[in-house]
Amino acid sequence: MSKKILVMCTGNSCRSIIGEALINAKLDGVEAYSCGVAPSGKVNPHAKEVLEINGMWNDKYFSKHLDEVIDIDFDLVVTVCSHADETCPSFPKAVKVIHVGFEDPDGKEFDAFIDTYKEIEEVLLGEVKKALN
């Protein structure tokens, strides 16, 4: 049975989508979702491009509000920006919440998205593994 993880940020257009894709691609026995506390309604084109380049893009990834996933029984919630960390809501079932923050690449050049992808891969995956043990 797979563990369910929610990656949450403010806009759900860059960092949380990249985190969701990396967890789904690289961690066995884990199913990741993402959402935003104030979703932008779109995936940043640079975030999509960096996932396509790395063979991880899936059309199931889209910007969505927490309300769309709140009823899923998550084993772990990870906030990846300070705003989401500060405003992280209560969940119907008690769930472990950790914060692993990353700088927002939105509005920056494509290279910033490559750097963010690498940082999320290097830091987030290890923190998720630790939190699930």
Question: Would you mind describing this structure in some detail?
Answer:
The protein has a single domain, classed as 3-Layer(aba) Sandwich (Rossmann fold). It contains 4 helices and 4 strands, in the order E-H-E-H-E-H-E-H. The chain has helices at residues 15-26, 45-53, 82-87, 110-132, and strands spanning 3-9, 30-36, 76-79, 96-99. It has a 4-stranded parallel sheet. Strand 3 (76-79), helix 3 (82-87) and strand 4 form a beta-alpha-beta unit.
Lay out the secondary structure:
Blueprint: E1 3-9, H1 15-26, E2 30-36, H2 45-53, E3 76-79, H3 82-87, E4 96-99, H4 110-132
Parallel strand pairs: 1-2, 1-3, 3-4
Helix pairs in contact: 1-4, 2-4
Q: What count of domains describes the coordinates?
A: 1
Distance between the termini: 15 Å
The spatial strand order of the largest sheet comes to 2-1-3-4
Per DSSP E runs of 2 or more residues, the count of β-strands stands at 4
Q: What amount of the residues lies in strands?
A: 15-25%
Helix content: 25-40%
- The CATH class label is Alpha Beta
The secondary structure category is alpha/beta
Order of helices and strands: EHEHEHEH
Mean pLDDT comes to 92
- Rg over alpha carbons: 13 Å
Number of helices: 4
> What would you call the shape?
globular
Could you give a short account of the major beta sheet? 4 strands, parallel
- Superfamily (CATH H level) name: Response regulator
